[in-house]
Amino acid sequence: MKMNTTSFYAKILLFGEYGIILNSKGLSIPYKKYKGGLRFKDFKQNVSRIKSHQTIIDFIYFLKSINSFRVSFDWEKINIDLSNDLYFESDIPEKYGVGSSGALVAAFYDHYSLNKIHSTKNLNSHKLNELKYIFSDMESYFHGKSSGLDPLNSYLGLPILVNSGKKIETISIPSKNLGKNGAIFLIDTGIEGNTASMVDLFLDKMKKESYFKIIRQEFIPTTNKCVDNFLFGSKIFFFNYIKNLSKITYDNFKEMIPETYQEIWLNGINSNSYFLKLCGSGGGGYILGFTLDFIKTTKLLSEYKLHFVHSI
Asked: What is the mean pLDDT of residues 210-224?
């Protein structure tokens, strides 16, 4: 049996990891290299599809338990589809910081919500915030705590600017405005991350007044400056701020940077050749990078798996 449903893209949070929890600015973009959608299982045994089917069963139990007043689901339709071995077919790497769970949440909401806010009809700030709250509740099953931004990005398929915790808007991303060979790129660490454990670690560190002060007075303001200058500023200012953000991250989020990648992280800062930052919660998965010369950077990091994302 075939299921005709929409596929949803992965996402990349360019800026705002951890800071969004404390109302920093954030900027998230679709990553169209990967996508996923709801499907029915065929008759052949497939371990990943069986695993996905069980994940959806557990997810549904969770949704019933939270009994959110914000959204109603078509449980009759869900039960029928479950009996036909519903699963989520996706090539989005799991535990890599690019929104595999967010895409599943977006697909589930799109297909089964009875009072759906459509992604293409008269979207305004109120509707965007309502979607974000809904997705935050839904995705908390996977991470314990979720901003809701990942599913929102997958659902809309558009770049999203978070100006504060309550002001969200879709936006266009500038291209080729910072340099001839400038690029955003990803480094594949080959290590699975764990968002829940990384977020728990961050929240535990935030209990220390000295750490809280650094995040509030250095990390968040620098994140905000990166967003502003990436969208509206000059290449000189942007790369000054992204260098500073990379250093603050290196000094204060070292547990979130895989040990084997800490040296190249520091090399980028010291050489001014490229600047690295966390992609999502860190701990593995992808590392996000920015450079004015992607060709030079690929040579410097020739031992690592780099993926081009966007011209800047």
From this structure: 97
